[in-house]
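Q: what does this look like with aspartic acid bound?
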Amino acid sequence: MKAVKFGGTSMSTAESISAVVRIIKNDPERRYIVVSAPGKAAGEDKITDMLVGVFKAAATERIRAFDAVRTRFDGICRGLNLPAGFLDGDYRNIVAALPTADYDYIVSRGEYLCAKLLAELLHFDFTDAADVIKFRGKTYDDGYTDSVCRIGLSAHKSAVIPGFYGSNEKNEVVAFSRGGSDISGAIVARAVNASVYENFTDVDGFMTCDPRIVPHATTIDVITYKELRELAYMGANVLHPESIFPVRKANIPIHILNTFNDKAVGTKIVPTEDFLNGKYERARKMPITAITGKKNFFSLYIDKSMMNAEVGFVRRVLSCFEQFGIAIEHVPSGIDSMTVVFSAVDEQTSNALLKAVRDEVKPDHMHLTKDVALIAIVGHGMVARPGTAARAINRLSNAGINLRMIDQGASEINIILGVSDTDFERALVALNGEFEV
Ligand code: ASP
């Protein structure tokens, strides 16, 4: 049996919701459905953004601000021939709560109403996420949720569950971070022991490269959880990165599909071991699965003779970053030098950081480079295959692109290259040319 999540674009209009209903009815295995709130539609904002506006309005204005949300849902209900006034009872409860309600409650109402509406259309049970997804205070409680959700959903043959939120020990609604319905879908998939977690969105799947930069980029049919982690981290954000953890733990594959293109085969994200053991086949057998990247990093080069003999040197440098709460991306190092790559920070913070490092380790030289872009070449096919890094470097040098940094982890499924922000697009095109991903 399948757990299926539909994103905001899929739920944005009466037409798209009709497509969702068709998709679900096409396959009787699709029994547990998680939905986002309606997304953008012609001239209309995302419902969740409208609800953020309701929260921000003065307490006396909130009810009036909520009218626009209500009008949007009423329009969708009309388009789907749902009985007039079908959501009136829910609107009344929400309106009564609005003057004193907190952020999490208000922003979660889009998912709540949307799930009500879809459950009615499908004749599935409605299960409130507040009853099956549990937090302690504001922190998601995975262990408790798993048992509550298993028991809660086992009582329903089929159900629609709102994404994005749950509740805590005080029965307060608590929301995940934005885009969190992907997490809800993964939690539900694990709780019902789904054979697959289908995630319907508005793209055909993960691409081998950003198609805005490399127009002939293609959809990847199969990637592993490990590869996904690398890709998501480097900016390929089809899925909320945290969303993979519940299904990853349970070895359930995720299938990214497009609500608006039933011809697309989508991307299957599969357990790494299963892939390496040959359970899944990729249509194109390439050493490189994808090339992706992000701009806007800084890199701090530090050099000091005999650095390698100074015990605790790296730790002391990194402690300065910790002091400023700066997360570190990569730390390539030489014998007497090291580089720390991190996301761009403001002028004041970078000045203070440099001073702290200077005071702490007294380097011979130190140089901060701004506007660094990182490119990740990702793929299991690279493991134990000599020459991939050499080919990448050669290709960049032939294209006249200066390589500022190179880093390869021991897992060998990821080579990170640092280039200047202004060379980023050219470097992606050149690397794609080399590996023909
Ligand atoms: N509706 C929420 C958002 O816009 C959650 C989600 O769609 O996953 O962030």
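The two ends are 34 Å apart (CA to CA). The chain has a mean pLDDT of 93.
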